[in-house]
Amino acid sequence: MYIEVIILAIILALDTIAIVILFVKLFRLKSRPITDSESRTTFLASSYSIRKLKKRYLVFSIISEGNVNKDRIQTSILRAMSKLYGEPFAYAAQPTLIFYDEGRKLGILRVRRESYSQLMASLHIAGKDEEPRILFVPMKTTGSVKKAREIIERLKPDL
Amino acid sequence: MYLVDAYVRPAKAEDLPAIIELEKKFGYKIVGVDDRFFRHSFNTDVKIFPVRVISAKSEDEAKSLLRNLSKNEVVIAQAKDVGALRTFSKDRRANIIEIPPKLSPYLDRNQAELFSVGKSMIGFNASNLIDEPRLFWWLSFLTSYAERYALHIVVYSGARRFDEVIHPKVVLNMLIQTGVKKGRALMIIGMSRLEEILKKKASAQI
């Protein structure tokens, strides 16, 4: 008789603890502020299990007759994507130059994973509209910027 | 299967070594060079072959141009008119046929049968995209047409300068963007059909 009562009490106590934990978690999720470093999409993805928007990092080198600066590369990529797929698509793809070494002519481009193929297709016409003309050479694609930086460090300077 | 760039046409003869060097760096094994620049000898691992380009505005002009061709040349025929297109596509001497977008209404089943008779391939010069990016729809149209009627299609750089050489990964993604599946896109880049033609031409020369 006593044993049954004790088991019942333990079950009730465990249930109460589980319910309390659940409520605390729910409260924390709803009251959590969106910080600057964390995008709204990431927050939504973590709260409501929506797929996180992933990025791809393209390690590239450029071949050109003169020196080319960061702005020129950024604008020529965006312009090329706009020419092939239209401006709304180009801006939605978010192609961003996150690193460029002017001496070695190597860089890293970040783009939304869904738009990776479009970025690659538009590399052919990118940088051809003004002098010095640029030839983009795709080298490696990674899923993290850390790996991309490692690849850049490993590459030979002449590539 | 080797990577093949079927046609480059440098603006100046001095540009050709730089183009060939870049093609080698990108992994191309076979490169077609415009026959006007072919005589220059290169010390390179890349196999180069001469390509002759002919262009006709009418059926008669197409016939007369074809008469002057030898069987050992790889020929890219640019059809500017429907008569020229019909003539080129049924003739085995024209290996690759470039079609302008204005002839799209004539690309039907009958035309596809003519391509099969002539065993010719549809060609697309990627350097045209640099001048006119809107032609991307035309590449898309040609790939879907080739897929529907089981025809061969070739995409080549047509590079006039070293910066117009196209990387194989870029070609692959361009083809994927036109709706071609990755396996078929790889086959198009590999161009086994062009390899066959080159072997035949080489054996004919011997």
TrEMBL record, chain A:
Transmembrane annotation, as ranges: 6-27
Cellular component annotations (GO), alphabetically ordered: cytoplasm; ribonuclease P complex
EC number: 3.1.26.5
EC supergroup of this enzyme: hydrolase
Alphabetical list of Gene3D superfamilies matching this protein: Ribonuclease P, Pop5 subunit (3.30.70.3250)
Function: Part of ribonuclease P, a protein complex that generates mature tRNA molecules by cleaving their 5'-ends.
Subunit structure: Consists of a catalytic RNA component and at least 4-5 protein subunits.
Protein name: Ribonuclease P protein component 2
Organism: Fervidicoccus fontis
Taxonomic lineage: Archaea, Thermoproteota, Thermoprotei, Fervidicoccales, Fervidicoccaceae
